[in-house]
Design goal:
Helix content of chain B: 25-40%
Number of domains of chain B: 2
Distance between the termini of chain B: 24 Å
Number of helices of chain A: 11
Radius of gyration of chain A: 23 Å
Structural class of chain B: alpha/beta
Strand content of chain A: 25-35%
CATH class of the largest domain in chain B: Alpha Beta
Distance between the termini of chain A: 36 Å
Number of helices of chain B: 14
Structural class of chain A: alpha+beta
Strand order of the largest sheet of chain B: 3-2-4-7-1-8-11-10-9
CATH topology of the largest domain in chain B: Peroxisomal Thiolase, Chain A, domain 1
CATH topology of the largest domain in chain A: Peroxisomal Thiolase, Chain A, domain 1
Largest sheet of chain A: 5 strands, mixed
CATH superfamily of the largest domain in chain B: Thiolase/Chalcone synthase
Strand content of chain B: 15-25%
Oligomer: heterodimer
Shape of chain A: globular
Strand order of the largest sheet of chain A: 1-7-6-4-5
CATH architecture of the largest domain in chain A: 3-Layer(aba) Sandwich
Helix content of chain A: 10-25%
CATH architecture of the largest domain in chain B: 3-Layer(aba) Sandwich
CATH class of the largest domain in chain A: Alpha Beta
């Protein structure tokens, strides 16, 4: 059977307290008070749409192993305008180079458009990733309501958890918000107009037609997933369409925030996990038109998803610094030229992107980086190593420090040596740790993160870091 | 069959500039300051020097490439000159090149110069630099204290040591070096500190505090070498000091990529130390060596080196340090001149500065910090980080000792 094989979502660990944001804007933005509730997911300095997509995909493929023939990355905040972002993700995941990788974006409904296409298309396995790390203008409503995160969906043949019943796509150049290429911030039009002319006409019409085409009554919809970047837009649309209020899928606005392009897929994940076999589920997304998908839950069990734990963050200044909206005095050590030699990066791409080292076929020693001569002093065989991927293996801390002298955008720089299960030792940075958490022997797992920014040339390089297993 | 270096090379003269934040001096001035002292000590003229080795590490923020800066600063008469670099072990590398050239019989009189002008960067600590084009793509952007702090976590875990005891031992190492540095007019840091000062200082790289880290200094040190025969002929009334061992060991990636290393010791120091002891005929280091200048870039480094060099039994360094064994009045004084910690650490000069202190002690010229009796002294000079480094060990002593 063709359909949706699995979905999952990824939220970064930090949860920015909205009241801390409001506290800094209150002097000029009293009106933000109504939004100053709960928390929003906040990417660490070393996360972006690419790294969050990688993490969502790894979670998904761990739960539902597959070799996708195609990978689409949907986002309106891709780090590179020229350089295939989906290609960076595919390489980090260690997908076969024959994977058809593409970036899609430009609208918050991009992932929904892509999901509909994937479900209508061929029998091949397709991986759809959506991620956003939006950086709204300080003191804007979007700064309050948005969150950083990613979601993933796997489409193909097999033990599908949902099938596509019908879908509807409407194009409408109603400009609720825009951001010209190269600009930093969105510009948004009046919410009341977007709600009345956009959601309540364009979205309502599209959802109604989709249900009509499938012959499904709105009252029978069990789960209705519509992002609500405008307060209660989802409720208003449901009421107008005739969908029961109980069917509304929670948006996690109070804890995570609106994930932009990833939000419809994240909400679909919530909906399908809650859905009974046979239940009709609607997911819709609005932006330059609307996409609607009507799915039906099958009776296949859902791959489990570990609950993500958040950590409270109350420093709005840290948020501004992490999003590079303020330039703090990092000292001269931060002036280091991080120019990447692309020749070397390509030569070493297996190690850098998919964290591949070598395993000696003569003596079995696992090593990183993989030099041509085996590191085992009793072996020293030449050209004896086969590729060995470290990315999905756990390791234990051999030594560590918290370094306040070295430059890091989130001091202290934490790094140390880790020994991998199955062999191999690497000196590596730690990320997403708690104070005093690092200990000799602590189990860690690998995550793909930004290693350095090259502000001079507008480049960022990625590598793997170790984070505590929780 | 190779016969080693023991007693084949004599130190005819040595010089060392004052170390510190020498805002007034550039590398030329520092080299000349050290050289003037060495030349007077050797009692020769510049034109008698046949070849020279220049050790400088951060040449990009310093003197630039080649040995030309040495030739220019001293106006050497177009003799052979070579620049060497082996990170913080650069000074010993210059000495090694010069010594082996004499031992080989290629030259009669040579110069080994080490210099570093670090205080032109605009910030504290060592200059930030590339670790190599490919390494920069994945290695953590570690600072030197961060890299050496790794030793502390691994050492405490391996020996099940109480972190407080380890911190106290580290503090004792620094208190001792400050006390010694206070007696050294050429030292960068001449203030005394208390154990409490060290324990309460700001953290640089956990668990290393400010006083666990050595100074970053400008300075130069040099040696004029010849054969023992020529030394005796030129200076019949001065006791001849000879090199007993000059060994080097370089990490090949085993520590960093092969899981046999415990992260709690300096593997190359053990290798270079063992070779040096064999070369010098030392079988019981703690008894036969009367003083040592080791690479105390950080207090934890000095602490673990006590075991690596055979001065402490495995796991006993903390106790020996706290017992005062390595104090200036102890059984085996370490860094009587203040060490990297307080004499200072102008990278390229440090290995030669270590030898300079032994040389001064052997000649009885160490002033207030003079030790009662030194026949053999050891230097250990480390370049790089604990997991990947260059380690040089020299043993210097009285001819025939």
């Amino acid at each position: 059977m063709h359909g949706l094989l699995a979905t999952c979502r990824y939220e970064p660990r930090l949860r920015l307290d909205r009241s801390a944001v409001y506290a800094q804007h209150r002097w000029m933005g009293e009106g933000l008070k109504s939004l100053a509730k709960g928390t929003r997911a906040m990417a660490a300095w070393d996360e972006d749409s690419v790294t969050m997509a990688v993490e969502a995909a790894r979670t998904l493929l761990a739960a539902a192993p597959a070799s996708p023939a195609a990978l689409a990355l949907a986002s309106t905040t891709l780090p590179f305008a020229e350089r295939l972002n989906a290609g960076i993700v595919a390489a980090a995941l260690g997908l076969d180079p024959s994977v058809v990788a593409r970036d899609v974006g430009s609208s918050a409904r991009a992932a929904c458009t892509e999901l509909a296409c994937a479900l209508q298309a061929s029998r091949s396995t397709q991986l759809l990733l959506a991620a956003d790390r939006r950086v709204p203008r300080p003191a804007s409503a979007l700064e309050m309501i948005s969150g950083d995160g990613a979601a993933a969906a796997l489409v193909g043949e097999g033990a599908v958890v949902a099938t596509l019943v019908a879908s509807r796509s409407v194009n409408a150049d109603l400009v609720d918000r825009f951001r010209e290429s190269g600009e930093a911030y969105d510009y948004a039009w009046e919410e009341r107009w977007v709600r009345e002319e956009g959601y309540l006409k364009i979205a309502v019409d599209a959802i109604g037609r989709c249900l009509d085409e499938a012959g499904v009554s709105a009252a029978d919809v069990a789960h209705f997933a519509l992002p609500a970047p405008l307060p209660r837009a989802n409720e208003a649309v449901a009421r107008r369409v005739g969908i029961r209020p109980e069917a509304l899928v929670p948006t996690a606005a109070e804890s995570i925030g609106d994930l932009g392009t990833a939000q419809p897929i994240a909400m679909l994940d919530v909906a399908l996990r809650a859905a009974q076999p046979g239940a009709p589920v609607v997911v819709a997304a609005f932006g330059s038109g609307c996409d609607v998908l009507l799915l039906r839950r099958t009776d296949h069990p859902y791959p489990a998803l570990a609950a993500s734990s958040g950590r409270s963050e109350t420093s709005y200044l840290k948020y501004l610094s992490f999003t590079r909206q303020i330039a703090l005095d990092w000292g001269m050590r931060a002036e280091t030229d991080n120019k990447t030699a692309q020749t070397a990066a390509w030569r070493d791409h297996a190690g850098l992107s998919r964290f591949e080292g070598g395993r000696c076929t003569r003596c079995g020693t696992v090593q990183f980086p993989s030099l041509r001569v085996c590191v085992n002093p009793e072996c020293r065989a030449v050209d004896s190593q086969q590729p060995h991927r470290f990315a999905d293996r756990q390791a234990r801390v051999l030594s560590h420090t918290s370094d306040w002298l070295a430059y890091s955008p989130a001091p202290p720089l934490q790094f140390g040596q880790v020994d991998f299960e199955g062999g191999g030792r690497v000196l590596i940075e730690f990320t997403d740790t708690d104070p005093d958490e690092l200990k000799v022997g602590l189990p860690v797992r690998m995550v793909y993160r930004i290693k350095d920014f090259d502000a001079k040339r507008g480049f960022r390089r990625y590598f793997w870091k170790a984070t505590p297993v929780r | 069959m190779a016969t080693g270096i023991r007693d084949k090379v004599a130190i005819l003269g040595m010089g060392c500039s004052r170390f510190g934040e020498r805002w007034d001096a550039d590398a030329n001035d520092l080299m000349l300051e050290a050289f003037t002292e060495a030349l007077a000590d050797a009692g020769i003229e510049t034109k008698q020097i046949e070849a020279a080795w220049l050790g400088v590490c951060f040449e990009e923020s310093n003197v630039g490439k080649t040995a030309g800066p040495l030739a220019q600063a001293l106006r050497l008469p177009r003799i052979a000159a070579t620049r060497v670099e082996n990170a913080c072990a650069t000074g010993t590398e210059a000495l090694r090149g010069a010594a082996y050239a004499v031992a080989a019989g290629a030259y009669d009189i040579v110069l080994a110069m080490g210099v570093e002008k670090l205080k032109d960067t605009g910030y504290g600590g060592l200059p930030v630099r590339t670790r190599g084009t490919s390494n920069d793509l994945w290695l953590p952007n570690a600072s030197a204290p961060g890299a050496f702090a790794q030793l502390a976590s691994a050492y405490a875990a391996k020996h099940n040591a109480d972190r407080k005891d380890l911190k106290r031992a580290m503090a004792h190492v620094s208190v001792k070096s400050h006390a010694n540095g206070a007696l050294n007019p050429k030292a960068h840091l001449r203030n005394r500190i208390t154990e409490d000062d060290a324990l309460r200082a700001a953290t640089i790289a956990e668990p290393l505090g400010l006083y666990d880290c050595c100074g970053v200094s400008d300075g130069a040190a040099c040696a004029i070498l010849t054969t023992p025969e020529i030394a005796k002929a030129l200076r019949p009334r001065v006791e001849t000091i000879t090199i007993k061992a000059l060994e080097l060991s370089v990490s090949n990636g085993e520590e960093s990529s092969f899981s046999s290393w415990d992260g709690a010791h300096i593997a190359t120091a053990r290798t270079a130390g063992a070779r040096a002891y064999a070369s010098a005929g030392v079988t019981a280091p703690r008894q036969q060596i009367q003083m040592a200048e080791v690479h105390d870039c950080f207090s934890i480094t000095e602490t673990v080196l006590m075991e690596d060099l055979g001065f402490s039994a495995p796991g006993r360094a903390i106790h020996d340090v706290l017992d005062g064994t390595f104090d200036r009045s102890g059984a085996l004084p370490i860094q009587p001149d203040g060490g990297l910690k307080c004499f200072g650490h102008p990278i390229g000069a440090s290995g030669l500065r270590m030898v300079y202190e032994i040389y001064q002690q052997l000649h009885g010229r160490a002033g207030e910090r003079q030790l009662p009796r030194v026949d053999l002294g050891l230097t250990q000079n480390l370049g790089g980080h604990p997991h990947q480094n260059v380690c040089a060990v020299s043993i210097v002593g009285r001819h025939g000792a």
